[in-house]
Amino acid sequence: MAANEPEVTKTVKPERKKITTKTLVTMKQRGEKISALTAYDFLMARYLDEAGIDVILVGDSLGNVIQGNATTLTVTLDEIIYHAKIVRKAVKTALLVVDLPFMSYHVDLKEAVKNCGRVMKETGADAVKLEGGERIAEVVKHLVKVGIPAMGHLGLTPQSINIFGTYVTRGTDPKEARQIQKDAVTLEHAGCFAVVLEKIPAALATKVTKSVRIPTIGIGAGIHCDGQILVTHDMLGMTEMFHPRFVRKYLNIAELSKNAFRKYIKDVKHEKFPNKSESY
Ligand code: KIV
């Protein structure tokens, strides 16, 4: 370096290593919590990945927050593939998991493997997520056999809402609590690399977390899960009409957006937009 050359101190961002299914298991072993959120489009996925999220889920919650439906049941395989393909383009580091829609893995093993294969091949996802315990164990075994990592989902599984009849907390009675615990062990033995626990008592989630070696990712399942997941639109305060107590709102995008829209409308009406510097 020449004597009169200013010294440039470069701040080099340490490269984050790609998160894999194995990383999550190691994180559990080290006691490092796993952060997970959902994405359905390119920009949101990019913000999440750049912020350093560990897991991005293309959830079938897109049926609610993107399509405006009352349940997740109407989401099709083609629709989830469409969104996952878009999200894939933005995700460099996070583990990308894609939800298997209702009835895409229920008919028989052959169809389940074929549909999961479509998700993996067409989207470039790292793994799939499916709901249920013992009843999906055979599907999980087959997926793992052909090289498709599977994440389980127990507790309040939204695809079973018509059986539950309500979105109340699951596993509050001892029989159902025992079944959830048993299901978690079954999913681990079948080959799942992680399991989501949705809306179950914190004490039950703690028990489940201690009884399996794979990480548990909670949503409304208390602090002692190995990680936490929320629907991004809920935690950003975009879904005004939905506020269960397990959602912490980190922003109020609904209000911020409406205020911005009101200002824009006013500016247009009063010829305050565009100004000279915004014109050619
Ligand atoms: O569909 C989804 O977004 C989910 C999460 C809430 C776990 O399954």
Give a structural overview.
- This protein is α/β, with parallel strands linked by helices and 280 residues long.
- The protein folds into 2 domains: 21-249, TIM Barrel, CATH 3.20.20; 253-280.
- Helix content is 40%, strand content 13%.
- It has 11 helices and 8 strands.
- It has an 8-stranded parallel β-barrel with strand order 1-2-3-4-5-6-7-8, surrounded by 7 helices.
- Helix 4 (77-88) packs parallel to helix 5, helix 5 (109-123) crosses helix 6 (137-145) and helix 8 (174-190) packs parallel to helix 9 (202-211).
- The chain is globular and about 65 Å long.
- The termini are far apart.
- 3-methyl-2-oxobutanoic acid binds next to loops.
Q: Which homologous superfamily in CATH is the superfamily of the largest domain?
A: Phosphoenolpyruvate-binding domains
List the total number of helices.
11
Side-by-side strand order of the widest sheet: 1-2-3-4-5-6-7-8
Tell me roughly what share of residues is in helical segments.
Answer: 40-55%
From N to C, what is the helix and strand string?
HEHEHHEHEHEHHEHEEHH
List the domain count as a whole number: 2
Do you know the CATH architecture of the largest domain?
Answer: Alpha-Beta Barrel
Task: Give average pLDDT, whole number.
Answer: 95
CATH class of the largest domain: Alpha Beta
Query: Could you tell me the strand content as a percent range?
Result: 5-15%
Low-pLDDT runs of 5+ residues are none
The SS-based structural class is alpha/beta
Largest sheet: 8 strands, parallel, barrel
Distance between the termini: 45 Å
What is the alpha-carbon Rg in Å?
22 Å
CATH topology of the largest domain: TIM Barrel
Shape: globular
In total, the number of strands is: 8
Bound heterogens, unique: 3-methyl-2-oxobutanoic acid
